[in-house]
Model the fold of this input.
Amino acid sequence: MASKHPETLALHAGWRRDPATTAVAVPIYQTTSFLFDDADHAADLFGLRKLGNIYTRIMNPTSDALEQRIAALEGGVAAVAFASGQAASAIAVQNLARAGDNIVSSTDLYGGTYNLFAHTFRDMGIETRFVDPADPEAFERATDSRTRAYYAETLPNPKLRVFPIAEVAAIGRRHNIPLIMDNTAAPLLVRPFDHGAAIVVYSLTKYLGGHGTSIGGMIVDGGNFDWDADPERQPALNTPDPSYHGAIWAQAAKPMGPIAYILKARVTLLRDLGPAISPFNSFLILQGVETLALRMRAHCENTLAVAKFLGGRADVTKVIHPSTATGRDAELVAKYMPRGQGGLCGMELAGGAVAGKKFIDSLKMLYHVANIGDARSLAIHPASTTHSQLLEEEQLSTGASPGYVRLSIGIEHIDDIIADIEQALDAAKG
Ligand code: PLP
Done:
């Protein structure tokens, strides 16, 4: 697909027609296995001398169309889909870091990713060094000889502070350390590879699927990182892999293109750990991707309008949206998000936790759910739900103050969205 335009790629990249039936829509290849031509063909596929379908845990034609489409949208070289965003985040790191290694991560993370890094990875022997993204140099200070990757989110909630992608990617490249960006909250709006990131991960569950039907995840390889520039820095890709007769991935993948990282993720960790996406979910997410450009435009416009409306309310003490950023944060918004500032918005209510809960209970149209990125508008009060296990000072430091309400603004008519928020705010004032 020659186009560079996301509107076109979202409909055409990675697929023209079904080779077997000429079907235009990507069929759901709901099969576990694929028939080999003969014994030599099977041996070539298993030995990676030929690429082709073997078994749906490792690859599937429906998922392949989704992978190619998102790789094209992102400006990457290849991608692998997973059963969830969590699986994608976990494997993105495990593909590089082993027991005894560490990664440096931004503190501003989705709670599930924080738990994965702080607890589950720690139990596996992988240490995460959390640093404040307001100071990009902190990534360098936390780096040592066992640091394998940097990790951050483009537009993390609840704070909605845009991450300094180019600044941290450049520090990483000086040490041959790749920056992995979770771009879940900003597909099409930000392309982390354009700013030097090496790997992008997504929860497809959010904007890419867009309709709240399917859980899925994706890792995209930018193909822009020199994995064998410093073999001691990246041993996972530069030491023989006994599960492939001693293949050294940084070398073995070269004839196939700059895909060492993503090839290894597919043929070792997806093979061994098994978090494969269902072809049915890939199909549903593909339907969402086709209208992603239209939806992101509507999400951005509606959310900006909501932020402006909230700014005029006396009972809202603070509006958290990229448009309200000041100083250095505002510079980052201008640099990274000129195409739109996303579909998330937070507000702090003067009435604190009581008003936050009352607001949620008074909503008539917005859904009270723990998701973001749905075509429908959603709301949650983190202090009484997602962040309820934290101490009050921890809630404050993560940005989830007692009166904070997170809004994920959908694509309904803006008048209806604002009318529902307005009546719930009035009810919350008592
Ligand atoms: N990354 C971000 C930014 C998220 O918001 C989420 C889920 O909320 C995830 C990753 C995890 O994705 P999933 O729920 O698809 O496992």
User: Anything to note?
Assistant: Residues 84-86, 89, 110, 112-113, 153, 182, 184-185, 203, 205, 215, 217, 372 surround pyridoxal-5'-phosphate (CB under 6 Å). The two ends are 56 Å apart (CA to CA).
